[in-house]
Amino acid sequence: MTAMEIDTPHGPARAQLHCAEQGRAGLLLGHGAGGGVGAPDLVAATRGAQAAGVHVALVEQPYRVAGRRAPAPAGQLDTAWLAVAEVLSREWFDDLPLVFGGRSSGARVACRTAADGQAVAVLCLAFPVHPPGKPDRTRMPELDAVTVPTLVVQGRSDPFGMPDQGHHREIVVFPGDHSLRRDADGIGRTVEEWLGRILRPLD
């Protein structure tokens, strides 16, 4: 594992790089609003991606690097994310295809930036469809706007809601809630299989 700081318009971000033996793509994974890159589902997804021959960068947003827990506004998150993606693509991933992903808030960032970042696919862990108890405040337009292959891994009893199947979008449901702690091995296998399948035409 290699760690590096990357300058963004909103302060330095940090990336933990986990390389695969044969890099066929680069996967950027972002954390949740109040959490870090050590979340169990992010760790499981990293292992699954490496098994599929994909390099992984676990990306900490500038507000977390600065020690703040409250997330920055969406526009700042997206701008910082794209700045990190540009540097990683140029300096570490050798212009390999990029997959954007993350858990919860990080999944929203990945969806919003997929087009501008030219991501070939999007991985969403615990996508927060709506705030708990407020189904009228839906974030589904962010997910629906993604036009590349998308995998959503969701807990069956997630209080943030359950997204619908959609064009280019697969939903895989695991026991548990928003934390996705119950079946790390299953999440890893799911990510490995999905990446292997959607990247095959690009090999």
From TrEMBL:
Alphabetized UniProt keyword annotations: Hydrolase
Query: Quick check: keyword Hydrolase in the entry?
Result: yes
Enumerate the spans annotated as KANL3/Tex30 alpha/beta hydrolase-like domain.
25-168
Source organism's superkingdom?
Answer: Bacteria
Q: Name one GO molecular function term.
A: hydrolase activity
InterPro entries, A to Z: AB_hydrolase_fold, KANL3/Tex30_Abhydrolase, NSL3/Tex30
Is Transmembrane given among the entry's keywords?
no
Q: Which PANTHER family match?
A: TESTIS DEVELOPMENT PROTEIN PRTD (PTHR13136), TESTIS-EXPRESSED PROTEIN 30 (PTHR13136:SF11)
What protein name does the entry list? Alpha/beta hydrolase
Identify the species of origin: Actinophytocola xinjiangensis
